[in-house]
Design brief:
The structure is a single chain. By secondary structure, the protein is of the alpha+beta class. Helices cover 25% and strands 28% of the residues. It has 10 helices and 18 strands. It is globular and about 65 Å long. GO terms for molecular function: methyltransferase activity. This is Protein-L-isoaspartate O-methyltransferase. Pfam families: PCMT.
Length: 390
């Protein structure tokens, strides 16, 4: 078929994003219209639409119309799974994508770039955001780093086809790019559990670091940090942000039962606290992250019987032989069974932190902030001197 005019499709997408409030800057609108997104999407990908609609496969050869519609919609397009070890249309863990335009432009507008700013991008992926930055501030001002050499090679080809040539480095983004420092902005396209201090060192005073921040428990947040003259970076969390984790910082994967072994000497007790609250009260997640580091949560409902029964899990990020806890929710029960194993009693830790958060008046995400220094990271509530957990 003859493809519809990509520019017209991009204009329609820009109107959609503007209506959503994700695209307000005319210069970024121009970048969306003039940087052809279709040159950064492979023929086969997995589309994840914005909102509750389920994902679906796109194959340009088999159904070109659906492929074009997906490319110029507000959908993320998964382009790699399991670091290239499995089929992109399979069930593996997504490891690279062309991110949803709404999220991309909300992120880029928060970056607040100015003419002639020098930007370090961590995570090239398909190269689309590097092209958008190159359009906005010029190729010579953009350095983008990709750890996967196969992705980097394809991104280089995509960028060339689109007419852009930023500096593309194959390496670990956790190391930054000292040869190009100092940068005015650091733009991170993957989530991090810990913010590498070298990013602060490589950013000039007054510069900004914008990164998805996922220290463990919970969905994740966008951290917007200003670098100040004493070697620290300070900022807040303007929005939630669920992104793929940097490869070197991923937690252990697998089903919850992978943590449970027959030899486990489990401690059993009961609780009157509804475990579903600890899953659904997401405003508490950041507070719990600080008090209970190195873990993540899951909630599984009994879908076979549709009884409303559910099991809440807290699992050690380090591996399947670490501590774990489970709480079985049964509708109508006044108490729920708690099982815990390992040197840490994870339900005790998480429930105590949650109740402490309630006692503070349920502070929401926008009241928390983060300071990064040579000594590490510190999360604070309302004021940088009021550290959480002290």
């Amino acid at each position: 078929m003859t493809s519809p005019d990509p520019r017209a499709r991009a204009e329609t997408l820009a109107d959609l994003l503007a209506g959503q409030g994700d695209l307000t800057d005319e210069r970024w609108r121009q970048a969306l219209v003039e940087v052809p997104r279709h040159l950064f999407v492979p023929d086969v990908a997995w589309a994840n639409p914005d909102g509750p609609a389920p994902g679906y496969p796109v194959d340009r050869t088999g159904d070109e119309t659906t492929w074009w519609e997906a490319v110029y919609s507000d959908a993320s397009l998964v382009t790699q799974r399991d670091d290239g070890g499995s089929d992109v249309l399979g069930d593996g863990l997504a490891s690279s994508s062309c991110s949803a335009p709404g999220a991309v432009f909300a992120f880029l507008e928060s970056l607040m770039v100015k003419d002639h700013d020098r930007v370090l991008e961590i995570g090239t992926g398909t190269g689309w955001t590097a092209a958008l930055l190159s359009h906005r501030i010029g190729d010579r001002n953009v350095t983008t780093i990709e750890i996967d050499p196969v992705l980097a090679e394809q991104a280089a080809a995509n960028l060339k086809a689109a007419g852009y040539a930023p500096r593309l480095v194959v390496g670990d983004g956790a190391d930054g790019w000292p040869d190009g420092a100092p940068f005015d902005r650091v733009h991170v396209t993957c989530a991090v559990a810990t913010i590498p201090y070298v990013w602060v060192e490589q950013t000039r005073p007054g510069g900004l670091i914008l990164t998805p921040y996922s220290p463990g428990y919970g969905y994740g947040w966008l951290a917007r940090l200003a670098v100040i003259g004493d070697g620290t970076a300070v900022g807040r969390f303007p929005s939630s942000a669920g992104y793929m984790l940097m490869r070197s910082q991923r937690p252990a994967r697998g089903a919850a039962f992978d943590w449970v072994h027959e030899s486990d000497d489990r401690a059993e007790s009961t609780t009157r606290l509804d475990p579903r609250q600890l899953h659904d009260d997401t405003d508490a997640d950041l507070f719990i992250c600080v008090g209970v580091p190195g873990v993540h949560k899951r909630l599984y409902y009994d879908e076979e019987t549709d009884s409303g029964e559910a099991t809440f899990w807290v699992l050690d990020n380090a591996g399947h032989h670490g501590s774990w806890a489970s709480v079985d929710y049964v509708p109508g029960k006044t108490e729920f069974l708690v099982q815990q194993y390992g040197p840490r009693r994870l339900w005790d830790e998480v429930s105590e932190a949650y109740l402490r958060w309630l006692s503070l008046g349920r502070p929401a995400r926008d009241r928390f902030g983060l300071t990064v220094s040579p000594e590490g990271e510190r999360v604070w509530l309302d004021d940088p001197i009021d550290l959480v957990g002290t």
